């Protein structure tokens, strides 16, 4: 049995029942693909269900506020995906009369849609004969054909694109594309795959040459930056607090947070108290909240976060109530603090 036929046969016996696989609607498939970028299916599925329930059509998503979209996205990370999602919905409604494109050449023009996403949507919604190439496909192809090119190098993508096209069957493109991705997600997993029960074990080159554990080759290392955030949780005479929106580019753009000062290292209590007294007036008390300290890891940054409660003997003009606070979109680390602290 050929490579592609073996994968399809395996897929029909082992595939997961996922909602976006039961439709050819380009909007629904696009929504799932954006949510699943850099996200595991188990984590992404509840978000997909929330989004498709709140925004069943591209028109619903386009007319939503960005705040609504970010609130639903809260906790999924890589928030530029949510902003691009919203911008694309508006573009489709305003410029394409609400007709979501389903061809690769049109899809690739959309904001937040790259080669893989355009290929996937075109294949699954319109049966277009294009090969998908995501992390799972890289892994399956590199192992099966024993390809040692470094996938962190941009020139390697062309090597795998050609290989993916070479093994792509014409008449069953959508099911094959689903099959090879599902195979990488469930069977040919990154660490310790169970090759003894693999349907490809009699022809897998990496298994033959004992290179399964080292493939795919990915040598590029990400430099991680440490940042130290000190959040001030104000409480005024009406028991209201203050939050700000992060408008600058970078992490958490357009999400909300408490007033913050960033330091170069973890600050001691006396340093924190001194800084707050220098910057703010009419302070009644300052309380460090060590039980809420957290280390939050992002792809390129590690955030060391602490919260400080500051009570003031005045009323803030721009303060909000705790009930209003809960309606705003926050980074998940601050959302979790709010849920615990104000419970």
UniProtKB/TrEMBL annotation:
Cofactor note: Binds 1 [4Fe-4S] cluster.
HhH-GPD domain sequence ranges: 35-186
Catalytic reaction annotation: Hydrolyzes free adenine bases from 7,8-dihydro-8-oxoguanine:adenine mismatched double-stranded DNA, leaving an apurinic site
Keywords from the UniProt entry: 4Fe-4S, DNA damage, DNA repair, Glycosidase, Hydrolase, Iron, Iron-sulfur, Metal-binding
GO molecular function: purine-specific mismatch base pair DNA N-glycosylase activity
Enzyme Commission number(s): 3.2.2.31
Broad enzyme group: hydrolase
InterPro entries, per database record: A/G_AdeGlyc_MutY, DNA_glycosylase, Endonuclease3_FeS-loop_motif, HhH-GPD_domain, HhH_base_excis_C, HhH_motif, MIG/MutY, MutY_C
Cofactor: [4Fe-4S] cluster
CDD domains: ENDO3c, NUDIX_DNA_Glycosylase_C-MutY
PANTHER family documented for this protein: ADENINE DNA GLYCOSYLASE
Function: Adenine glycosylase active on G-A mispairs. MutY also corrects error-prone DNA synthesis past GO lesions which are due to the oxidatively damaged form of guanine: 7,8-dihydro-8-oxoguanine (8-oxo-dGTP).
Family designation: Belongs to the Nth/MutY family.
Protein's name in the database: Adenine DNA glycosylase
Lineage of producing organism: Bacteria, Pseudomonadati, Bacteroidota, Flavobacteriia, Flavobacteriales
């Amino acid at each position: 049995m050929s490579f592609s036929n073996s994968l399809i046969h395996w897929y029909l016996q082992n595939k997961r029942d996922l909602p976006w696989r039961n439709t050819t609607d380009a909007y629904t498939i696009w929504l799932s693909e954006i949510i699943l970028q850099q996200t595991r299916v188990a984590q992404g599925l509840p978000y997909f269900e929330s989004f498709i329930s709140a925004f069943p059509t591209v028109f619903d998503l386009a007319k939503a506020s960005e705040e609504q979209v970010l609130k639903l996205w809260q906790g999924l990370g890589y928030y530029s995906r949510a902003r691009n999602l919203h911008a694309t919905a508006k573009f489709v409604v305003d410029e394409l009369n609400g007709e979501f494109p389903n061809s690769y050449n049109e899809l690739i023009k959309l904001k937040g849609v790259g080669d893989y996403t355009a290929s996937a949507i075109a294949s699954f919604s319109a049966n277009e004969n294009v090969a998908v190439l995501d992390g799972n496909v890289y892994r399956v192809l590199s192992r099966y054909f024993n390809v040692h090119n470094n996938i962190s190098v941009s020139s390697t993508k062309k090597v795998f694109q050609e290989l993916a096209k070479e093994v792509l069957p014409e008449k069953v493109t959508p099911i094959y594309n689903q099959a090879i991705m599902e195979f990488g997600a469930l069977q040919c997993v990154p660490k310790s795959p169970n090759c003894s029960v693999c349907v490809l074990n009699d022809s897998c080159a990496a298994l033959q040459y004992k290179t399964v554990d080292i493939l795919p080759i990915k040598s590029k290392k990400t430099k991680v930056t440490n940042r130290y955030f000190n959040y001030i949780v104000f409480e005024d005479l009406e028991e209201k607090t203050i939050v700000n929106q992060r408008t600058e580019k970078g992490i958490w753009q357009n999400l909300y947070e408490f007033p913050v000062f960033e330091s170069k290292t973890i600050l001691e209590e006396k340093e924190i108290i001194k800084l707050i007294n220098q910057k703010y007036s009419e302070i009644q008390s300052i309380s460090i909240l060590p039980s809420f300290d957290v280390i939050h890891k992002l792809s390129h940054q590690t955030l060391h976060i602490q919260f400080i409660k500051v009570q003031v003997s005045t009323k803030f003009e721009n303060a909000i109530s705790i009930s209003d606070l809960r309606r705003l979109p926050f980074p998940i680390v601050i959302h979790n603090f709010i849920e615990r602290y104000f419970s």
